[in-house]
Amino acid sequence: MPPRTAFYLLWRGAPSPEAAKANALFSVWEDPDLAPTRAALLDKVFSDSEKKDPKTSLTREELQQYAALLENPFVLGYISEPEKHAEAAAISAPNGPGPKWTGTFFVYDRTGKEALLSKAILRLRSQEKEAPQISQIVIGDQPVLKVERKASTTYWVETGKFAVSANERSVLEEILPRLSAKTAAQSSLAQTPAYKEAAPLLGGGLFEFFVRIPNLKELSSFDGTAKIPLLSILEALHLDAVHSICGHLTLEGAKTHVQAAVLGDATAGTLFDIWSDGDQAPASLSFASSEAISYTDTQINLTGIYDVFKRSLRAVFPQGQQGNTNILESAVQTRLGMSLPEALALFSGEFSTLQTSPSMDTAKQVYFLGIRKKPETLKLLRAAFGDQLTSERDEGGTTFLKVSLGGGESRAGVAQWNFFNLAVTPDAILGSSRAQTLHDLLAQHAQMPAAGGLAASPTYQAARSKYPGKVSGMSFFNFQKVDWQAAKDRWIEEAKAAQAKAAKNSGKPSDTHSLDWLEQVNTEVFLRHLHTASGASWKDAKGLHFEEWIE
User: Fold this and answer.
1) Do 437 and 289 reside in the same domain of the chain?
2) Could you give the count of Cα atoms lying within 13 Å of 254 in the half-sphere of its Cβ?
3) One domain for residues 10 and 122
4) For 13, left (φ over 0), alpha (ψ -120 to 50), or beta?
5) Is the pTM of the predicted complex or chain greater than 0.90?
6) Backbone φ, ψ for residue 122 (5° rounding)
7) What is the structure's pLDDT at 410?
8) 280-315 pLDDT, tens per residue?
9) What does the alpha-carbon distance between residue 61 and residue 72 come to, in Å, rounded to a whole number?
């Protein structure tokens, strides 16, 4: 690909039947016991499509045919605007909009799919409301179809085993020589610093993606007509410290492995300040019992977020209006009774969720927010919630609060509903829609050994061992502990209740068949193939890294 490639998504083709059969995720979808669900889902897709436009909707047979196109590799990408094009657009700007750059390109390996691809293209063109103007031109020594529409132009060429499409002639002129084995080696994306930095995460897997973050010079063309000083804001955010976003997915036997990263210069004073340096054993983990179904933990740098926000806010206001930033901070201090930095300093930056219900009951879901000073935190909560705080009581060193998330005022007084419950301990705020859930968790936590719970579970330890010692994010899900039938029954009940409410509010009857696919699910399939899913994120000098395993 050309060195100016700003983005690409590369699909390497469907895995072999042997690899798909060995993989847990593919096995779930291909399990014969899931066939009724697949059929019901397809029926719903076709039904919805026919309702929108019967003339353009695919038949089941056509969908199965065209799905075979995904068996072959393809790449979708975007090449950034060249300087000459940007200059031409800037020159013509006073006389109206200049030529708009659309640097998208698509390359498809059509080996064995030539006839099917032609059929698909003809079908798409036949469904256009207005017939495009089609002509043939020559680029290099290749005959190319030029498809002109009112709002766009597309170039299409089939050369050797490739089918290539682009919206700019110059893009096609760059791509075509690179597909020819006769062409000498040229400079390419692989030789750019951003790609070299990302190379360890690229070059393999079922699919991969790469996004090169443009430098500020490339974005300067947006600043002239923008209503806000975009370039100044990006400079204040030190966007140049972020070089790329990249990643890939691989099948490793029964396991599915995802790796991704935001790469760049992660020194202090950049956008990477948003993320925490991480911890080996986050505080919330001590609340997770060995019977936990799912656990997620994220640690962010609240002070770093505040600094980034303040820099960008100052960039919005002209030099003589920098006092507006102080006015906003004063308004926050009046509302909270303390400055925003003081308020943020009360929190550790750790956010977690914990689910212990085998039926995935949302009333058993617990949210964790780490704090540092309980008395000051309670003061902040009282100021923030105001009249929404309906009750407060202390029990054994824990303060329980009830907050109304909905309400209204009338002549009869104030009516409040949709309550949420908080339990404030010396180092955490725990939240749940049900107060009893918090009492049960705290009682269990008091009896749990210091080195026990989920952290001592062999299944969790095996998952945790895949990641570095210090992480800023961790997730764990145990598929084998879920009561899938109970979860399915609850999801159907909740979905039907939501449909009935929507039908009542709209006056239209609900679709009685919209949940057929869910009712057809054989829940044994999940237990048969899936065991655990785990993931982590961490920051180092090279950037922020993400990794996920599904086993």
Assistant:
1) yes
2) 9
3) yes
4) left
5) no
6) -65, -40
7) 43
8) 889 999 999 999 999 999 999 999 998 888 887 777
9) 19
Tens-digit pLDDT profile for residues 447-484: 988 778 999 999 999 999 999 999 999 999 999 999 99
| List of long-range contacts for 180-187, beta carbons under 8 Å, 24+ apart | 187/3
User: Which one of 135, 157, 191 terminates a domain?
Assistant: 191
251 in a structural domain: no
Q: Above 50 in pLDDT, residue 277?
A: yes
**What Å distances lie between residue 10 and 87, 204, 302, CA to CA?**
31, 10, 36
**Domain containing residue 447:** 265-497+520-550
Please state the φ and ψ torsions of residue 107, each to the nearest 5 degrees.
Answer: -125, 125
Assess whether pLDDT exceeds 80 at residue 141: yes
Would 443 be classed as within a structural domain?
A: yes
CA distance 224 to 426: 52
The answer to whether residue 203 sits within a structural domain is no
Claim to verify: residue 187 and residue 269 sit in the same structural domain: no
d(CA 71, CA 39): 21
Q: What is the pLDDT of residue 452?
A: 86
CB 213 within 8 Å of CB 242 = yes
CB atoms within 10 A of CB 96: 6
- Inter-residue contact 273 to 307 (CB < 8 Å): yes
Please indicate, yes or no, whether residues 358 and 463 belong to a single structural domain of this protein: yes
Give the Cα separation of 313 and 335 in Å (integer).
20
Q: pLDDT value at position 392?
A: 95
Which two structure tokens, joined as six digits, stand for 288? 């997770």
Quick one: CA dihedral 426, 432, 434, 440, positive or negative? negative
Asked if pLDDT for residue 217 goes beyond 70, the answer is no
Q: What span, in angstroms and rounded, lies between the C-alpha atoms of 299 and 182?
A: 52
Q: Tell me: do 358 and 490 sit in the same domain.
A: yes
The residues that bridge with 75 in the sheet, in sequence order, are 10, 107
**Residues linked to residue 395 through DSSP beta bridges, in sequence order:** 398
145 and 10 within one domain:
yes
User: What pLDDT is stored for residue 109 in this prediction?
Assistant: 97
Residue 50's pLDDT band (boundaries 50, 70, 90)? low
Q: Indicate if the alpha-carbon torsion angle 519, 520, 521, 523 is positive or negative.
A: positive
Rg (CA), the chain: 28
Residues 476 and 359 in one domain: yes
Does the pLDDT at position 414 exceed 70? no
Mean pLDDT of the chain: 88
Residues 6+ apart with CB under 8 A from 355: 292, 293, 294, 295, 364, 365, 366
- Same domain for 384 and 493? yes
Of 191, 226, 243, which closes a domain?
A: 191
- Contact between 408 and 463 under an 8 Å Cβ cutoff? The reply is no
Does residue 479 lie within any of the structural domains?
Answer: yes
Which string of b and e fits 436-457 if b means at least 16 CB within 10 Å? ebbbebbeebeebeeeebbbeb
Contacts for 402-405: CB closer than 8 Å, 24+ residues apart: 402/435
Domain count, the chain: 2
